[in-house]
């Protein structure tokens, strides 16, 4: 039996209140109903049960044996429901679920998230790594960190980081062709993910009008972190966001052979629903991110 389709739950709530007060009038005051509405709900429940639940006396009511039994069980049931709801509210209040791209999580968020958690030890953080755009109405995600133009309907978007791009390569691999003096020299080496649209954009900005990108094997790593690791291993030239791999460039594991850095209008954004903008855990995280990226927000 499906409870919601068979048991008049609103009438059960009215019964529980009327049984506690032994008064239809006081039950109505508690529930925001008229005495007539309370009487109607009790009559509806009596018809459903098939037995009287109250003895109506002048200026007072008394529970029948059946009414006392049903009211007691109803009180227990509502108490269990109230506890369950409170536990659910506490759980969701303490856990912040962040949908984030894999690269941003590995190269930025994971290295700094401890600062946020030290400041807000009562908030546990769960990362849901995905390059797909999540639907907030269908998931329990609280905040998204996604790349794009910030024009998602129904969401509050704050830009947090420019998503620039430029080629990077292992210094050892670059040395095999005598170094790189002109952007076209990149075409002398294997290119990682040659079908990435960033490549055509960057070569066009660099003034290289003829490339063989379309004729190369269309391998695609799909994630900047993997592409950078392949470049460090000497397997080819990758095109990534230099900010993400600044430590690798500074240490010499990667070489950014040209100063030209491009941007196609797609940046990193912090997003959440308008309706939940004042939820404490969401406010705490957005305020922290604003401190981390003061020039972008």
How would you describe what is shown here?
This protein is α/β, with parallel strands linked by helices. The chain folds into 3 domains: 89 residues, Orthogonal Bundle (Arc Repressor Mutant, subunit A); 95 residues, 3-Layer(aba) Sandwich (D-Maltodextrin-Binding Protein, domain 2), CATH 3.40.190.10; 86 residues, Periplasmic binding protein-like II (D-Maltodextrin-Binding Protein, domain 2). It is built from 11 helices and 9 strands. The strands form 3 sheets. The chain has a 5-stranded mixed β-sheet with strand order 4-3-5-9-6. A two-stranded antiparallel ribbon has the order 1-2. Helix 2 packs across helix 5. The longest helix is centred in the first third of the chain and has 30 residues. It is rod-shaped. The model has no long low-confidence stretch (mean pLDDT 90).
Report the biggest beta sheet as strand number plus sense, adding barrel if it closes.
Answer: 5 strands, mixed
What's the Cα radius of gyration? 31 Å
Judged by helices, strands and strand pairing, the structural class is: alpha/beta
Strand order of the largest sheet: 4-3-5-9-6
CATH architecture of the largest domain: 3-Layer(aba) Sandwich
CATH-assigned homologous superfamily of the largest domain: Periplasmic binding protein-like II
Number of helices: 11
How many strand segments?
9
Q: Segments where pLDDT lies below 50 for 5+ residues?
A: none
Helix content: 40-55%
Percent of residues in beta strands = 15-25%
Mean pLDDT: 90
CATH topology description of the largest domain: D-Maltodextrin-Binding Protein, domain 2
General shape: rod-shaped
User: N-to-C terminal Cα separation, in Å?
Assistant: 53 Å
> Class of the largest domain in CATH?
Alpha Beta
Tally the structural domains. Answer: 3
The helix-strand sequence is HHHHEEHEHEEEEHHHEHEH
């Amino acid at each position: 039996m499906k409870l919601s389709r068979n048991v008049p739950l609103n009438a059960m709530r009215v019964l529980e209140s009327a049984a506690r007060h032994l008064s239809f009038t006081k039950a109505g005051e508690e529930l925001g109903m008229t005495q007539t509405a309370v009487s109607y709900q009790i009559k509806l429940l009596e018809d459903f049960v098939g037995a009287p639940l109250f003895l109506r006396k002048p200026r007072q009511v008394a529970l029948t044996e059946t009414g006392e039994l049903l009211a007691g069980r109803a009180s227990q049931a509502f108490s269990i429901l109230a506890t369950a709801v409170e536990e659910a509210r506490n759980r969701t209040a303490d856990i912040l679920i962040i949908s984030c791209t894999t690269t941003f999580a590995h190269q930025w968020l994971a290295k700094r998230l401890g600062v946020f958690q030290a400041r807000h030890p009562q908030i546990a953080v769960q990362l849901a790594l995905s390059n797909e755009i999540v639907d907030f109405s269908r998931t329990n995600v609280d905040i998204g960190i996604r790349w794009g133009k910030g024009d998602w309907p129904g969401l509050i978007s704050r830009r947090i980081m420019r998503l620039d791009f430029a080629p990077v390569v292992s210094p050892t691999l670059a040395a095999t062709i005598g170094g790189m003096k002109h952007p076209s020299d990149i075409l002398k080496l294997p290119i990682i993910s040659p079908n990435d649209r960033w490549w055509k954009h960057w070569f066009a900005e660099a003034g290289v009008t003829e490339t063989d990108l379309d004729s190369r094997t269309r391998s695609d790593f799909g994630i900047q972190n993997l592409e950078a690791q392949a470049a460090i291993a000497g397997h080819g030239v990758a095109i990534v966001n230099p900010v993400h791999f600044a430590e690798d460039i500074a240490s010499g594991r990667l070489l950014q052979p040209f100063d030209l850095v491009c941007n196609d209008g797609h940046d990193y954004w912090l997003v959440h629903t308008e309706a939940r903008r004042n939820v404490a855990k969401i406010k705490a995280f957005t305020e922290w991110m604003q401190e981390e990226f003061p020039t972008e927000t």
